[in-house]
Design a protein that fits this description.
- By secondary structure, the protein is mostly helical.
- It is built from 14 helices and no strands.
- The chain has a single domain, classed as Orthogonal Bundle (MetI-like fold).
């Protein structure tokens, strides 16, 4: 039986596709506009009228911003904290989720309740800062990693996914003499690729975009600065009308780029790496988030 489109269904489809097209344009246009400005000649950008294509193409803006003091150090620190923080976050979260998913774990409910409480209550900014100080994490790279190594929400999402796996797999492995670590690393983790990829993307984006912890704990140490923190400082300076000369090599350099070009170029530098990672995880994203979130 062939489907026959009615005038009402045709009108609805036209409206739906048109609406989604407008949403897509509204979503993509700001990014394309920044990309065009970042590749456009700085002096020409001041004239305005740049939309989605550069009027006078140049690489000069990117060449200039990489002459900022501490920018390369900030980029390395951001990459390192993202890679290390994501790996340890996934490993610790999945191991804890595996323990909480075991029916024979006696303290399963009290421990789960303890982690639920952390989703609703926190100690506040000042107690957290004092804790970091007492743990000797101030002016330390590990302040980026250790405080967020376990996230309760991530643990519950992974546990919900594990609850949906057949328990017979673990029972069969135990009958064959497999230990809990063997079951976890060789059976459970390979089956959890979708949810782990999803959580990994969340953790990576959070680590890459974080700047407030740098501001609180490591702002006095230029060797521990991060890319987003440098971006925040530069954007603050340009919005305040400052030429950012304190982070430029010379006043001659400051005159070669406009504030608009600085903002666009460094925003693209800070955004591009996470955009490159996303396509490799996209096929896991919807499946992992859906399966991990709808089960109780």
């Amino acid at each position: 039986m062939k489907y026959r489109a009615t005038p009402g269904s045709v009108a609805f489809n036209v409206f739906l596709y048109g609406f989604m097209l407008l949403v897509g344009i509204a979503t993509i246009y700001p990014f394309l506009n920044l990309l065009a400005i970042s590749f456009n000649d700085s002096l020409d950008t001041v004239r305005g009228g740049i939309y989605v294509w550069p009027r006078m193409f140049t690489w000069n803006n990117y060449e200039q911003i990489f002459r900022y003091n501490d920018l390369l150090t900030a980029f390395k620190n951001s990459v390192l904290r993202t890679v290390l923080g994501t790996f340890l976050g996934i490993l610790s979260g999945s191991m804890l989720a595996y323990v909480l998913s075991r029916k024979d774990f006696i303290a399963r409910k009290p421990v789960s309740l303890f982690f639920v409480l952390t989703l609703y209550f926190s100690g506040g900014l000042i107690p957290v800062y004092m804790l970091m100080r007492d743990l000797s994490l101030i002016n330390s790279f590990w302040v980026y990693i250790l405080p967020g190594i376990v996230n309760a929400w991530n643990v519950f999402v992974i546990r919900s996914y594990m609850d949906g796996l057949p328990i017979s797999l673990q029972e069969s492995a135990k009958l064959d003499g497999a230990s809990d670590l063997t079951i976890f690393f060789r059976i459970i983790l390979p089956l959890c690729k979708p949810v782990l990829a999803t959580i990994g993307l969340f953790v990576a984006v959070g680590q890459w975009n974080s700047w407030f912890d740098t501001f609180l704990y490591n702002s006095t140490n230029s060797e521990l600065t991060t890319l987003q923190y440098e971006l925040m400082k530069i954007l603050s300076d340009t919005q305040a009308g400052d030429s950012s000369q304190a982070r430029l090599g010379s006043s001659e350099f400051a005159s070669q780029v406009s504030p608009e070009s600085i903002r666009a170029s460094i925003t693209m530098v800070a955004t591009l790496p996470i955009l490159v990672v996303y396509p490799f995880l996209q096929r896991y994203f919807v499946k992992g988030l859906t399966l991990g979130a709808v089960k109780s």
